[in-house]
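thread from #wetlab-drylab

HS: before we spend reagent money on co-crystallization trials with farnesyl diphosphate, can we at least see a predicted complex? here's what I'd submit
DV: go for it
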Amino acid sequence: MAVTPSGPSARTDLAKLGELELLELVRSHPVPAHVAIIMDGNGRWATQRGWPRAAGHKEGVTAARRVIRAADDVGLRYLTLYAFSTENWSRPAQEVSMLMALLERAIVSELPELMERNVRLRIIGRADGVPAPVQRGIDRVVNGTANNTGLQLFMAFNYGGRDELLDAFRALARRVAAGELTPDEITEAHVTRALYTKDVPDPDLLIRTSGEMRVSNFLLWQIAYTELWITPTLWPEFGAADLYRAVADFQGRVRRFGGV
Ligand code: FPP
């Protein structure tokens, strides 16, 4: 039997709706618990205007703020943003240090609003290699928001999906070596619990901006059955309405998880 998609996108031309109408529409259907975003295109956005790449990253921070508010307004439980990958260290040193300073400032200055909105910030990625002042700023906001019970905001920072898997496999190998577990006893649940995201449900929806058709070493284990939404919009131009349209489209999809 054919399954007819339902949800807001089946009945409405989403492109014609404004931000508030979209928010109302999306909130009248079950919203995904977890949305992950690859924020791409800051550099191109700036270059198109003849501006330095740093200007694109600054505008990218503003876009991130908009999207965190929108995610909270729509009622997501988890939002994961890919802020800095292990591969990003290979960018020119000046861009890396600019990004570090910008991300730290952006995170620290967000603390009052995160508290007001009851948002908890958590970091996924390796702490080693992150400059000490940046790590201190991050720790301050992670600790300050630790008891918040609203939106759980995960920032992937110095994050690599393969590194995360390696860390998990090493932890499991150590448990095998210690005699706690045999290789044949290892299940998917063991791997899931050994990841940085151990207590978080897999993303329901992965958004990537700037039109690239790649997953770029992001949440490799967790996105096995995640729905994808790729938009040509560059990250600095991505706004609340774009997030709502992606969620509305998701709400109209039929997920089979490999079944029929
Ligand atoms: C992607 O654009 C951007 C990054 C990898 C940098 C980090 C993200 C931000 C500054 C946004 C703010 C985030 C938070 C959580 C405050 P790109 O430089 O890869 O763009 P390009 O592909 O056009 O060069």
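DV: The longest helix spans residues 53-74.
HS: ok that's useful, forwarding to the group
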